[in-house]
Design goal:
The complex is a heterodimer. Chain A has an eight-stranded parallel β-sheet with strand order 7-6-5-4-3-2-1-8. In chain A, 47% of the residues lie in helices and 11% in strands. Chain A has a single domain, classed as TIM Barrel (Alpha-Beta Barrel). Chain B is of the alpha/beta class. Chain B has a single domain, classed as 3-Layer(aba) Sandwich (Aldehyde Dehydrogenase, Chain A, domain 1), CATH 3.40.605.10. Helices cover 42% and strands 18% of the residues of chain B. Chain B contains ten helices and ten strands. The longest helix of chain B is centred in the middle third of the chain and has 21 residues. The chains are: A alpha/beta, B alpha/beta. Chains A and B meet through loops of A and helix 1 of B.
Chain lengths: 304, 288
């Protein structure tokens, strides 16, 4: 498969920023009643990629996070696990071991996350390494510098090369656009349309390593790109907003947005994820509040 | 030329900002003669919840400031209130207080802030203790802030009552959410403007206006509130039980609030006792 052929007819759709903001304002003002809220919160919990991506990560920290992934809050009955944990490649083996016997997946960031500033071979080697360690999913970053220079072929070739490695091992691929570095929603749409040409399993907003992470406008634009791609090709691609979503209320807004744009088929952790670390506890606190009627305190919930 | 008065919209004070109540409800406040002065926000449990989030976020760094710095900031509050003395007196006269009573209310409020500003770096020195032990240890008890304090200010004393509840709490490194006097609430929100201009970090002081009976049960049951101060008659049994269930500290300041008193600071402190081994100099070591 060559990017040149794919790109011959590459046209991206311009985005109306006012229209996007208006639609989001309407989604945000929607009232969600108790039973729906409880269902939505449990669904959101089940869609979380519990994430730690620090230079200071240790095997013990990752093991502890994996325990939290499987047992979000043991004193509450009927809670789902989170969808996956997301770690650096060197910690995949630790996570895999800690999660043995559960359905929680291990996602590894690869391709020189977060900047992606190295040559293609090094990126492919890192992808091979992460998969060799046992990763179920790979979160790759696109080369934003090349994208902004207009070298769309280069960017698309990279995604395709990484995808071929992943799919040869039955590993799912998420493509991080790092929307905070792209500048405008028009560029976000362009990058989404570009990445979607490669048919990855997910497109993802951000690394969480720069100031501006996932926002509702950016997510809406990406969801719309996924929908248009699905209409055109019949191929389903998932969505993962990551970074900056830390409270349960916004998580519910995101779910509403997914349902409105893509429909219920996407409302499962096979096709929608939240990349987050603090979100899980806020969801748990809101669920406990629904159960007990009392507002909760953070000190009664494990940190990770 | 005649001109129309530009009326102030009184909102609530959460996290250093002036949002309207999320509930969009309001209640009228009248002057002494029964004419409408302003519509005040009728705060809901969700406003209180938002205020707790802001207060929790602000508390640790407020407690982490040096006592000297907290003292400076309380004194700054007094300075800013002094600068607006005349307008506060006028605002209170509109509420129906006499000129003399209004002056007294404002002057005492300023003095009370200065009083607690002075205590900031003194109460730990005065009330901490080194305790006797039978072994080679230091054993000492020091005060630490309780954390997030919810409070109901008195109804009749719109400014002095409010200040008397806030000052001892923040003097000791707590953050507070105060329910202001219900029908004399205009002074409280004007005082929030003073707070916003006085280097008090956003979230350390939060002021709500509304109904005590509606909000106190939520103040009592919220698990992230560490202490509840009631300076107004009318705490019901259900709320009292909720306080006990949540292992929360409850203080009735209904009678104490008119006094300035360092023991009010101590009400909102927890005492932490620490053992520390000492090497006996007689053992021939280096001593400590």
């Amino acid at each position: 498969m060559s990017a040149n052929n794919l790109l011959q007819n590459f046209k991206w759709t311009p985005v109306d920023q006012m229209g996007v903001d208006d639609r989001i304002a309407r989604i945000k003002s929607r009232s969600i009643k108790d039973q729906t809220k409880i269902q939505g919160l449990k669904m959101a919990l089940n869609m979380i990629d519990l994430t730690t991506l620090e230079g200071a990560d240790t095997p013990n920290k990752v093991s502890q996070m994996c325990y939290k992934a499987m047992h979000p809050h043991d004193s509450m009955l009927g809670l789902p696990t989170v969808a996956a944990v997301c770690v650096y490649p060197t910690l995949v083996k630790t996570a895999k071991k800690a999660l043995r016997g559960s359905n929680v997946k291990v996602a590894a960031v690869a391709t020189y996350f977060p900047s992606g500033q190295t040559n293609l071979q090094a990126k492919l080697d890192e992808t091979h390494y992460a998969i060799g360690e046992g990763a179920d999913e790979i979160d790759m970053v696109i080369s934003r510098g090349k994208f902004l220079q207009g070298e769309y072929n280069y960017v698309l070739d990279e995604i395709i090369a990484v995808k071929e490695i992943c799919h040869a091992s039955n590993v799912r691929l998420k493509v991080i656009l790092e929307t905070g570095e792209l500048g405008s929603v028009d560029e976000v749409r362009k990058a989404s349309d570009l990445a979607l040409q490669a048919n990855p399993d997910f497109i993802k907003t951000s690394t969480g390593k720069i100031g501006q992470a996932a926002t509702m406008p950016v997510t809406l634009v990406m969801l719309q790109a996924i929908w248009d791609h699905f209409q055109k090709t019949g191929i389903r691609v998932g969505m993962k907003p990551a970074g900056g979503i830390s409270d349960a209320k916004s998580a519910l807004h995101y779910l509403l947005m997914v349902k409105e744009v893509l429909g219920e088929e996407w409302l499962t952790n096979e096709w929608f994820r939240f990349g987050a670390s603090r979100l899980a506890n806020d969801i748990l606190m809101q669920l406990a509040k629904q159960e007990s009627g009392m507002y909760q305190a953070g000190q009664y919930f494990s940190k990770d | 030329m005649t001109r129309l008065n530009v009326q102030k919209t009184y909102k609530i004070f959460i996290g250093g900002q002036f949002p309207r109540t999320e509930s969009a409800r309001y209640y009228p406040i009248n002057d002494g003669a029964g004419n409408l002065i302003a519509n005040m926000c009728l705060s809901s449990r969700k406003d209180f919840r938002n205020a707790v989030v802001a207060a929790r976020k602000a508390q640790a760094s407020w407690a982490g400031k040096t006592a000297y710095n907290r003292s400076q900031i309380l004194y700054r509050l007094a300075e800013m209130l002094e600068a607006r003395r005349a307008s506060f007196i006028e605002e209170m006269e509109v509420l129906g207080l006499s000129k003399k009573a209004s002056e007294k209310e404002v002057d005492h409020s300023i003095d009370r802030l200065v009083y607690y500003a002075g205590w900031c770096d003194k109460y730990t020195a005065l009330f901490s203790s080194v305790n006797p032990t039978a072994t080679a240890h230091f054993n000492f008890s020091v005060h630490e802030p309780t954390g997030v304090v919810a409070a109901v200010a008195p109804e009749d004393s719109p400014l002095l009552g409010l200040v008397s509840v806030i000052a001892p709490a923040i003097c000791g490194g707590n953050s507070v959410i105060v329910l202001a006097s219900e029908f004399k609430a205009t002074s409280a929100i004007s005082f929030a403007e003073v707070i916003q201009n006085s280097d008090v970090p956003g979230g350390v002081i939060n002021i709500l206006t509304g109904n005590m009976k509606e909000l106190v049960p939520h103040m009592a049951s919220h698990m992230d509130v560490n202490a509840l101060v009631i300076a107004r008659q009318g705490l019901d049994e259900k709320s009292r039980n909720a306080v006990v269930e949540n292992v929360k500290r409850l203080f009735d300041w209904t009678l104490k609030v008119n006094e300035q008193d360092p023991y009010l600071i101590l009400d909102l402190q927890e005492v932490k006792t620490t053992w520390h081994p000492v090497q006996q100099s007689a053992s021939g070591g280096g001593g400590y």
